[in-house]
Structures are given as structure tokens and as C-alpha cells.
Design a protein that fits this description.
The protein has about 325 residues and is of the alpha/beta class. The chain has eleven helices and eight strands. The chain has an eight-stranded mixed beta sheet with strand order 1-2-4-3-5-6-7-8, with helices on both faces. The protein is globular.
Length: about 325
């Protein structure tokens, strides 16, 4: 596997931002999703978007024996994210089923429980994947993007050999596998001015909605004063999910210390020029089990990987390179 960004998109920030805002996400037509609402064991709900294949309901019913690609989105992502649509398009062209489960509060409606979602929630990943496996007759493979990638790899490490009962293979893309290193990086310089501000513009209002549901759940003034993810996680994410502090959260949620326990085929894809993830924090071969393939292309940014070539008609640019490569890896494990 190899990747090189177009010459006119230099640097990790440009590759990240252009891919998210300007690149074409599909080859012919945008993927269409059908939404299901699932009740959780703690009396909450999550929304799952299923790819509607060409041919509609009849084709979807017939797809039960094909591979199912489960896409776990990143921080504040959804099935509308550029990477989710690109992966769904690749699955559609392969004739696979595809589902995008939304973490709590990310489907456009605030969830009910006094909690949200976090990067190390392997129990939630386990519940999702087992439900998919019980429902789908064909093999299940999963890819996690950024936060979703860390959570997925954290699950695979936690499950060890048991993961093979649920999935055939997994992949993470631009996952902050060392959360402390990534948390520090995104809180500095350009990252703080652009990406941190963007995330907080979405996360802070949802946290305040949660506080309206559960008065006294956390310190409102401390949340409003938060200017980076370290402060936000200290006030909101950590306490709501049972962590003693943001440092405790980042340490216990990180997948990197658990990668040696992964016992199913797994791909960890991280661009060296990812502005969120310091290259020195990336796992090395000694940090992972023999089942884990490490792929660190020099370019790509954070979930960017823009390209100018694709099957079919030419267009100014697209983000199919990463989804094609990741799905090809997963398909090779079946």
C-alpha cells in the first residue's frame, strides 16, 4: 500500500481541511442511508444508519450474506462525515452491506442518559459489534476513524482472542492511540486556534443540553471557561464516564498499551504529517501483536488522504484513496 497527496495540497493541515470541506466523497452518486433507533441496556438510545444499496429494500434484504462494514465515526462525526460517506460508497461498489452507528448524542438528537461518549468506551463498541454480528449472517468487519478508531482498537485489545467471535478484521484510521500525546498536540498553536475551536463549538452546546437534563451534573462555569480539550475532558468527559481526571481518562482510554493483545487481523493507518497526532507517539512494531499491520504514509493529514484519480469520470479531487485501501485490507482477511 502506498499513498502520495497531490502536489497542490502540501502539508497536513491543507490535506485535512481540503478533504473535509472540498473533496468529492463518492464516485457516482451520494450514498443513501436508512436510520434505525436501537435501545441501549441503560434505557438510552443510539441511532444506526444503514446503507441503502442500489435496488432499495429488496437488495438490502438480499445483502445479509455479504460482508458488513461497520464504520465508527470520529469526534463529533456522523454518517454525514466525508469519510463515512466515502467508506459507504466503497462498500456499495463492492456489493457489501454498511452501517454507521452513531455514538450517543451524535445523530442530531441529544441522548437521554447522564453520559455522552468517549474514546475508550470499549464496552459500547462491544455492544454494537455483538448486535451487528447477531443480526448479520455474513462476516462483519469494522473500521474506526480518529476517536472511533482508538475505541475500536481498545476493544480489540481488551477482547483478545474473543474478538474473532464477533469480527473478521478491524482497522483504525488516524486514531489517537496515545491520547495524552494527541491531547497535548491539539491544544497548541494552529490546532488550538482552528480544530479545537471547531470541536468545542459543537461539544459545548451539547454538554449544556446534558446539564439542562441533569442539573448539577458538572460545573457549568468551568465548562464555559474551557478553551481546549484538556479542560473540556477534565470538566465533562472524564467525570461523566467514571474517570478520576483527564489524565486518568487519557491513560486508561488509550489503545496503544493494549495493542499487543489484539488477536484478529488489524490495520493501524496514521499519516506521518497528521497535525493531531505526533509521529513519535505512534506505535512501533514492538508495541503491537503480529496480527497488527502498521501503515504510516508520509502524507494524508488527519483523515484527509486527498487524491485526483479514481475509477470512472475525472473530477477535481476526491477522498477515495484511504477507503479503497482500508476496505481492500479488510477484504483480504475474509
Amino acid at each position: 500500500m502506498d499513498y502520495a497527496a497531490p502536489w497542490w495540497l502540501p502539508g497536513g493541515n491543507v490535506q485535512t481541511i481540503w478533504a473535509a470541506l472540498r473533496a468529492r466523497r463518492f464516485i457516482d452518486s451520494p450514498p443513501v442511508f436508512r436510520r434505525e433507533r436501537w435501545s441501549t441496556p441503560d434505557s438510552d438510545f443510539v441511532d444506526v444508519d444503514w446503507l441503502v444499496p442500489p435496488g432499495g429494500a429488496a437488495a438490502e434484504a438480499a445483502s445479509g450474506q455479504t460482508p458488513l462494514l461497520v464504520v465508527f465515526h470520529g469526534l463529533e462525526g456522523s454518517s454525514a462525515s466525508h469519510y463515512a460517506q466515502a467508506l459507504a460508497d466503497v462498500a456499495r461498489r463492492r456489493g457489501w452491506a454498511c452501517a454507521v452507528p452513531h455514538f450517543r448524542g451524535c445523530s442530531g438528537e441529544i441522548n437521554l442518559a447522564p453520559r455522552a461518549y468517549h474514546s475508550g468506551d470499549f464496552a459500547e463498541i462491544d455492544w454494537f459489534l455483538r448486535r451487528f454480528a447477531n443480526r448479520h449472517a455474513g462476516p462483519v468487519v469494522a473500521v474506526g476513524i480518529s476517536l472511533g478508531g482508538n475505541a475500536l482498537m481498545r476493544w480489540a485489545g481488551e477482547m483478545g482472542a474473543q474478538a474473532a467471535q464477533v469480527v473478521a478484521a478491524v482497522a483504525s484510521v488516524c486514531a489517537p492511540l496515545d491520547m495524552a500525546a494527541s491531547g497535548r498536540a491539539i491544544g497548541q498553536g494552529f490546532n488550538r486556534l482552528v480544530y479545537t475551536r471547531m470541536f468545542l463549538q459543537s461539544m459545548r452546546p451539547k454538554a449544556l443540553q446534558k446539564l439542562a437534563q441533569y442539573p448539577g451534573l458538572f460545573d457549568r462555569e468551568a465548562l464555559l471557561a474551557a478553551r481546549d480539550l484538556h479542560a473540556f475532558d477534565q470538566v465533562f468527559t472524564g467525570p461523566l464516564h467514571g474517570f478520576k481526571s483527564v489524565e486518568d481518562y487519557w491513560a486508561r482510554a488509550s489503545a496503544k498499551p493494549h495493542l499487543r493483545q489484539i488477536a484478529v487481523p488489524a490495520l493501524a493507518l496514521n499519516a506521518v504529517n497528521d497535525p493531531f497526532i505526533p509521529v513519535e507517539s505512534l506505535p512501533r512494531p514492538a508495541d503491537v501483536s503480529p496480527q497488527v499491520t502498521l501503515w504510516y504514509p508520509a502524507q494524508g493529514g488527519h483523515v484527509g488522504f486527498p487524491s485526483v484519480r479514481a475509477p470512472g469520470p475525472l473530477f477535481p479531487g476526491h477522498v477515495q484513496a484511504m477507503p479503497e485501501a482500508v476496505v481492500a485490507f479488510l477484504a483480504a482477511q475474509l
